């Protein structure tokens, strides 16, 4: 039987890798026969695997084709593709030639993609479908530096030929060329490796310049906190265009020699979890929150006994967790016996829906609500919350398995420093801090002060060295009375209730707090029927009795918040805020300004006459 030491024997040090392409070459050299990636092959309808040696052969073909574009080291090349082996091949080929990769979200709007292509000066673009280019090509005068578009779909199948420039070519044709693989560019670890455009909830995105060393250092620091092994398999579904997935779900496994399986889509995530049965999962809070809401809705249907058993399982599981962490007494004989009954009856059934063998689950990109964390941890899931931002490559802090305090962002990762500014803003300093914002020197100086401290924009508390994020500086709403409202905390608490799919509270410069609430269809149907109303009738959303019931429910949810933070009026909605309608960022954060603009008339109506609904 292999020991933990044996399983980590091929961990690649930063110094050995040097650069991100150096990391790939070293992994291939050390473990060419080890499975690197799994991906669903739609042509044959089954999952296929590639080892590191096979990946090296593929990357070589991509490198040969990309080198024929004769781009100078430092030139930018973009990729707008869903997660997959092709994404990895393109990036590794580009990095080996000294090019800077610009990742784009697969579902981003053509207008935003055009802006990023223009701002970055990208000269090549890899896309997944002809339709992507059909929508983007109409804006090609905005980004004149783009020379080559490479498409996974065959361009010959287009009803109307695409007129250049830029040239549009099918990947199969583009890779079908002879000749030797061009030699690797001797990049410096401090050279830019990527421009990651922040998907912020307001304003135009900024290109964050991250070096090879920024990302390698961050991945290595994470591995000190969260040991990862050859026999681990990660299921990747967050976009690789986001720094969180890129570092933890791509380079960290490469450094450790773990396998990555690419999920087919968010819609098939549940099925893919059951098929792949991952040992590690990297996700954002919304995924755990939706799973929690489904559990709660199912319990409502199953009745009092099911709910009582579930609550008991969570309670005992939580006590077991506290005891294991050294923060609670060992559970008694009766609870131990009950756990032997409840584990297979309750806990194992829920965890089986996640594949049944998760060794570790990580949540990042936004705070995870306490009820959700307590639920999954109580069921026995090793759920760790962390904190970071793109400008830090991205991780700044995290919890460890043996030292896990849910509700906190954990301790700074090894080698990172943190402190609080006078206004409570969290400042961070580490080798992972970005080189700066692309072509924005003034904004770079605002983000990174003369002492090298990155200003995160997040309000935090620190207790016993642990970080507790309390919201964004910009998300603190100041009411007309001068009272301050932690919008993020309120929205997180509301969204934990199975009735509410999404929530946005309003109160900046206002006399009281209101909320826009997107309802979960099944829970809404049950609530409407309680009032003998038709859930499909839009007028039911305006029914004052229904609204009063919702406000009462909010009062219970927000009972621990001060009186001035209580929601007095609501606008009920059924259409979710999504990537497609432009109201969510790719990491599923609500775009506050866009939502407020879209529903300006409804918000104005909530404050008409300043009459409080009671």
Word description of this protein:
With 614 residues, the protein is of the alpha/beta class. Among the domains are: 4-187 and 226-282, 3-Layer(aba) Sandwich (Rossmann fold), CATH 3.40.50; 479-610, GMP Synthetase, Chain A, domain 3. 37% of the residues lie in helices and 21% in strands. The strands form 6 sheets. The chain has a 9-stranded mixed sheet, with helices on both faces. The radius of gyration is 25 Å and the shape is globular.
Mean pLDDT: 90
Broad structural category: alpha/beta
Largest sheet: 9 strands, mixed
The CATH superfamily of the domain at 4-187 and 226-282 turns out to be ANL, N-terminal domain
Write down the CATH class of the domain at 4-187 and 226-282.
Alpha Beta
Total count of strands = 26
What does the radius of gyration come to? 25 Å
Helix proportion: 25-40%
Shape summary:
globular
Spans of at least 5 consecutive residues with low confidence: 1-5
**Helix count from the secondary structure assignment:** 21
The CATH topology name of the domain at 4-187 and 226-282 reads Rossmann fold
The strand order across the widest sheet is 2-1-11-10-12-13-14-15-16
Strand content: 15-25%
* Assigned CATH architecture of the domain at 4-187 and 226-282: 3-Layer(aba) Sandwich
Give a brief outline of the structure.
The chain is an alpha/beta fold and 614 residues long.
Name its key features.
disordered N terminus, GMP Synthetase, Chain A, domain 3, alpha/beta, 614 residues, 21 helices, Rossmann fold, nine-stranded mixed beta sheet
